[in-house]
Specification:
alpha/beta, six-stranded mixed sheet, four-stranded antiparallel sheet, 10 strands, 36% helix, binds adenosine-5'-diphosphate, binds magnesium ion
Length: 259
């Protein structure tokens, strides 16, 4: 089991070898419910981490905490040398550096595909419309939906919408992309077109944390699998090791049900 030491001295700035994300002894409750239990791990630059585990094990909360869509009770989350603050301008900046793709696409329904992709770069990154549109078209082309640019999201298939959502997050030039079950809401025939885009991103060196039940994707693209159960990281290993020789009883049980 490969486990990086995330409790090492935090490094500030953009040192090449320092992990991009360090999650150190993080705990989180929802009322009485203890949803993240002493979660410690780190993600290297360019690394693709797949998070799997039973429903309710805390995978989404883990992702949302990294983006500060959820607060944490204790511990620290550091992105590129900066400890995630509770609020304020610095938080907005850090959040802009972390792309997020949700199960439910979450595109702006009353804006065109192109507007969906240019909105944040023009407002948050203060790019000119022209520059933002040129970059958006490039990204839409990369995910294979450039010809849909002037349509509304509702005119697209689920797979196309999710590819737009990925292009939208890339438009901010994020340091990291979190994808929380990006294919779970898709009809089966659309899953591969989204997974293929994700594999392409992984090959291009994007740092990604992906919550998914797509074990084929994990085997193809992940550098590491994190298995969560009941709010804890139960096991961390390369995909080969995890799928072929899971160590913990919970991981064995989980895999026996899904494989
Ligand atoms: P997963 O993504 O692995 O299915 P979640 O992180 O969504 O798990 O949820 C972990 C636990 O926290 C579950 O028991 C869930 O019901 C609970 N939970 C999630 N979000 C909230 C919330 N906003 N308020 C209260 N409980 C929540
Ligand atoms: Mg979830």
């Amino acid at each position: 089991m490969k486990r990086m030491d995330a409790s090492a001295t935090p490094v500030r700035g953009t040192a090449g070898d320092a992990p991009l994300v360090v999650i150190d002894h993080v705990d989180k409750h929802f009322g009485e419910l203890h949803v993240l239990k002493d979660v410690t791990t780190s993600v290297a630059r360019g690394e693709v981490v797949v998070v799997i585990g039973p429903s309710g094990s805390g995978k989404s909360t883990f992702c949302r905490a990294i983006n500060r869509l959820e607060t944490i009770d204790s511990g620290t989350i550091t992105i590129d040398g900066e400890v995630l603050p509770k609020e304020g301008k610095q938080l907005a900046q850090l959040r802009a550096d972390v792309g997020m793709v949700f199960q439910s696409f979450n595109l702006f329904a009353h804006k065109t595909v192109l507007e969906n992709v240019t909105l944040a770069p023009t407002r948050v990154r203060k790019r000119s419309r022209k520059e933002a549109e040129a970059r958006a078209m490039e990204l839409l082309d990369r995910v294979g939906v450039a010809n849909q640019a002037s349509k509304l999201p509702s005119q697209l298939s689920g797979g196309q919408q999710q590819r737009v959502a990925i292009a939208r997050s890339l438009a901010m030039d994020p340091k990291l992309i979190l994808l929380d079950e990006p294919t779970s809401a898709l009809d089966p025939e659309m899953i591969n077109e989204v997974l293929d885009v994700m594999v392409g991103l992984a090959r291009d060196g994007m740092t990604m944390i992906v919550v998914t039940h797509e074990m084929g994707f994990a085997r193809r693209a992940a550098d590491r699998v994190i298995f969560m159960a009941d709010g804890r990281i139960e096991e961390e290993a390369t995909p080969e090791k995890f799928f072929d020789a899971p160590q913990s009883p919970r991981a064995k049980d989980f895999l026996s049900k899904i494989l």
